[in-house]
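Anyone have tokens for MAPEG family protein? Sequence:
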Amino acid sequence: MTPLLTLLALAGLLHIAQFVVASYMANVDLGPGYTTSPRDRAPSREMRPATGRMLRAYDNHIQMFPFFAAGVFLIHLTDQSSAVTLGAAWVYLIARVLYVPAYAFGWQPWRSYIWMLAMLCCATLFIAALV
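Reply: yep, here.
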């Protein structure tokens, strides 16, 4: 497996880890009666702010991950891997790992800067695929 595809796999594992942690926290806060139901009604209990933040961090990764995956696949399929693309992929993964505690602990404005860095890395992959 190429280094870029390895980083894509690691980003996928990060995605799964975020889902597990956020789901566990929601299950603790709302109870399994609600979380295993079809959720046709609003929950009878509220979530802790930290749980809401973890769910929003996960939702943000749902939005960001396709950009990263598409960029990695473009570079891989066109055989344009370079130090720049590998560096961008590493920085993306590190930024996304840092994004989780940044969101969980409300690191303002750092959370937004970390998000921008990850998006810049995705843009770098797309630009590198075009040149």
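DSSP finds five helices and no strands in the chain.
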